[in-house]
Amino acid sequence: MFMLSFPAAAFATNCYVIATAPGQECLVVDPGIGVLDSLQAVFAEHRLRPAAVLLTHGHLDHVYSVTPVCGGEAPAVLPAYIHEQDRYRLQDPIRLLDPMLVLAFEQQFGAKATWSEPSEVVTVGDDERVSIAGIDLRTLHAPGHTEGSVMFGIEAVPGGIPEGLDRTMLTGDVLFAGAIGRTDLHGGSDVAMQNSLREVVYPLPDSTLLLPGHGPATTMERERATNPYLRGLRP
């Protein structure tokens, strides 16, 4: 598996590009704020053709560029995949933000925040199997950060990863290296997060490479041993 990542221009949101190999179709995961030029450079350098966008949840910092990435006219338009319970957020994620945060965003970028909904949205549920661009994905619904937070699992790891890891999980804002996603925003729930950590995250094999929505990659073995939010949990 071929994978590249880079942080967005705001909130250091990780944007991932995943393919079976250079020169193939690819998946774009969580295209946030100010990522379009970087994505085009990645596509050109590695001869990649985007096939779909995966959204781990519907917060603006993870979806801001989804519509231009998916843009175009049928049949060229790309689908955006999101959990059914976060589908409503794609109608206007700016409206769900604190007005002061929107103002700070506009002051930073010197332009009014605008939004248009992607034209093709595919909703997914829990434990669904989807195959796109030659990559087999499994969805794991893990609410708490938002109602529809989802993790995408792949039974492969990128090249160059140390031995002992045999699968990848894109965790979004469910689990970070040494931390978890906050639960005090609109649609968040501490009760739901605790259940997701216990029932969905904790059972993941130690051989899982974790690619979070913010911060560095980590492994399930490391997080089980050191993440304070996972201590004492049992499924």
TrEMBL record:
Lineage of source species: Bacteria, Bacillati, Actinomycetota, Actinomycetes, Micrococcales
Pfam families (UniProt xref): Lactamase_B (PF00753)
Cofactor(s) the protein requires to work: Zn(2+)
Keywords from the UniProt entry: Hydrolase, Metal-binding, Zinc
Stored Gene3D superfamilies: Ribonuclease Z/Hydroxyacylglutathione hydrolase-like (3.60.15.10)
Domain Metallo-beta-lactamase, chain residue ranges per copy: 12-214
Name of the featured protein: MBL fold metallo-hydrolase
Region feature Disordered, mapped onto this chain: 212-235
